[in-house]
Structure prediction request, 504 residues.
Amino acid sequence: MYSSIEVEKLSYSYPDGHVALREVSLNISPCEKVALVGPNGAGKSTLILNLNGILRGQGKISVAGLELNEKNLGRVRACVGLVFQSPDDQLFSPTVFEDVAFGPLYQGYPEVEVRQRVKEALAVVGMSDYVGRVSHHLSVGEKKRIAIATVLSMKPELLVLDEPTAGLDPRARRSLINLLRELPITMLISTHDMLMVRELFPRMVIMDEGYIVADGETLELMENEALLSAHGLEKP
Amino acid sequence: MHIHFLDPYQPRLSPVHRLDPRVKFVLAVAFILTTAITPPGAWPVYILLLAIVLAVEILSDLGVGYVLRRSMLAIPFVLAAFPVIFTLEGLTVFSLDIGPWMLTASQPGLERFISIALKSWISVQAAIILAGSTPFPDLLVAMRAVKVPRLLVAIFGLMWRYLFVMVDEAMRLLRARAARSGHADRSDLKPGGKLVWRGRMAGGMAGSLFLRAFERSDRIYMAMAARGYNGEVHSFALPSLSPANWLVLGLSLAVLLILLIISILIFG
Prediction:
């Protein structure tokens, strides 16, 4: 069966010996929207960085049927649209256009197609008017949307976001949630925002101390208050 | 992701590590000054100085190999003294024909160059031992104790504190770039982009790093001002030096002074 992403017994230790992932297995089907929750230090960010080979652990990862290895690394990176928590890390170019164009330009697409992709990506996140703006002067909410556009322009197989609603005001959070709901793409989102999880994600994966401790239907897991509190989570 | 490899401090239990930071700082500066003032061509004195620095390396438990590897940092700076070979007058050693120019190496010039190279190499080793055996905050305290201007010490301290933050930030930018450096699923497209474009992107990253450092310095200043900072750095009084530390300081300074006097009397 075709999966957007397939993780099999992935383990990862940091160079200082700290074990961050212990035999993690995860399977996400196309267009499925999955929330990744757990306390700080549970291994969520480490897992995310493994998905496109920024960190390399032991185990098997396949994205859209492509196995992650030296040969496929470039292809896998284009398939996994990874949006970092801080949009300031994500937006490293002077203008919004250059940032959104970075992915396709790196891939080698001709100018006409790059322009078309930038236009589409900005339209999807509702930021078409910002194409010539300087990223530095945008609000956090605007930067978040642009950051999502920078990976959408690569037409990825799945979108991986690290704490997308952290630091947003209620209005920016609401508009981001609406945007995520409407995007017809596979999603894996690491978050502490349990209200958003309940609203948006039918499936929830709980991580703690490097293990996946639960993986199932959100509404069902949310009823299990003993499980939530055992892993530092709260029922919204 | 945090960067620790920049920190030169190597925790050990050696006598050099236990010596008071003020003593170490004064001795390191005195050693470097002595090396600098020693006249060119005083080879036996250089050997003695090198022997001292090697002995301290062994005593400090840092390992001679570690210090020597790091001391290679001095090489590019030594090259600045290279023209001296050809600019001093004296006995001709060899001549080079480079197109219209004729470069003549003189014996005093060569002697001066080798002296400068040796002296910088020995001095750098002393500095490496100091940084390797003393935690940086202690070094700041030592600088304040010997009346290095407080503002300068405060600047060193802040630079040290935020250097790591900056490097972390740069690493995160590079990681974000790597995450989007993908390949298309079309074999006719060559990934990587044009060289000029890559240069532009790297320039943009450097620029945004500068902007952020600038903004951060504003925020830090405001946070300092909010806690009463008025340009004056206050600190506790330091404990007095133990007799043993005074002894080490006095003896070492005496040895350095004697070496200096001998070198000036014989070779000066």
